[in-house]
Target: Transcriptional regulator, TetR family
Amino acid sequence: MSAPVPSSPPSDRVPLSRDRVLASAVAVADAQGLSGLTIRSLAGDLGVKPMSVYHHVANKEEILDGIVDAVFGEMEVPSDQGEWRAEMTRRARSARAALRRHPWAIGLMESRTNPGPATLRHHDASIGMLRAGGFSVVLTAHALALVDSYVYGFALQETGLPFEGADTAAEVAGTMLEQFATGQYPHLVELAEQHVMRPGYDFGDEFGFGLELILDGLAAARQ
Amino acid sequence: MSAPVPSSPPSDRVPLSRDRVLASAVAVADAQGLSGLTIRSLAGDLGVKPMSVYHHVANKEEILDGIVDAVFGEMEVPSDQGEWRAEMTRRARSARAALRRHPWAIGLMESRTNPGPATLRHHDASIGMLRAGGFSVVLTAHALALVDSYVYGFALQETGLPFEGADTAAEVAGTMLEQFATGQYPHLVELAEQHVMRPGYDFGDEFGFGLELILDGLAAARQ
DNA sequence: TAGCACCCCCGTACTTTGTACGGTACGGTC
DNA sequence: GACCGTACCGTACAAAGTACGGGGGTGCTA
Model:
């Protein structure tokens, strides 16, 4: 733990830039969580002293805005050439994947009211695709609000889950089981025993069910 | 601004308690935002010195867990006596209302993996209600994941909106319009001009559309 | 009624974090 | 060679979480 370990190879001559700062910020947040992202840890990752960062961003808020926009930049941008339902599926799945790679982004979205260029581009393309797919202006607004709510909310629940895989589940079970043991939550216990705790269950698999249901509904509304 | 102004009336003899701490924490977060909720501001609101708080909670994390659970406690608990669709509607609307009253809760949910008693009770009752309404165990899991994703995601978008009412919209418009003016986001502009910027538009109204669509889909799946 | 235990609260101080302020080194231009 | 802008750094301070060690009031026991 003596020398800082930059996430990017020590190609030392690269002179730092807003983009390098944001890329490092994403990497640090991925590795240490949002609370681990401090100006000092970020500078350490960049192989630079803390105050140097401030020559490329105004303050930490701007960094937070920037990394949220970076996450939007990782989502696939829909094309208005494709069939709307396939495009929406692709869009939703890649959005969920991006939010899974960067779970801290969800918590940040509430509080950032400053959409960046990638965010705007993403939304613009989505609207264009639906309009090209025959959706009215009003129905486009409905559809995007609905699908995005579902995607963000699903990601929120997914990252807020008490367990990651089967490995940590036991520990959590210990914490909660004392409460369950009192018999106060019979339905929760039933659902856990008969479904969630069964081998092979993965909350992530619920995503497809809801997405299809929603797209079915939108297809019907489009008529 | 000399004396601290407690949010609760200065009924001074009440001796502080975990519940009073959490209630004040909710009030402070509502008033100042989550970043305004510090041990010192909380103590100030309680009319007490900072370290006194630590006799009732272990640390700030526990406060954050506690206020999230408090928000869940404000949501109406579904009854397994009622008709499932009406109960789900009531549940979803009251959840959204609670998250609107306490926008900071959404950002907190990601990061809190420690559900409190109100949260567990809420989920338990919801499961029981759906089971009583004829949903299979598997479909119950699907339905809750779907509806909750929608509700949380909608709330997330709602609080992340760049404007509150028509009042601040102008300011935001100024910030973004320079980007819009470049013509990079034609579809966004169309949607804004023809729909969102029209008098009477309220993003909150989108909620009902998606909820009904989802419940229609679940009703069909239940057969 | 004197003594005592205990619960609740507080004063002080240390650590971590964001960031203001003023350098300093280096490359280019007149 | 004098000047200057760009990029980075050293120092320092304020705000926030919280460890540690009291102290004062209330009620119990003798």
Observations:
- Residues 1-57 of chain A form a domain with the Arc Repressor Mutant, subunit A fold (CATH 1.10.10.60).
- The first helix of chain A runs from residue 18 to 32.
- Residues 15-16, 48-52, 55-56 of chain A lie near DNA strand D (CB under 10 Å from a C1').
- Residues 214 and 220 of chain A are 10 Å apart (CA to CA).
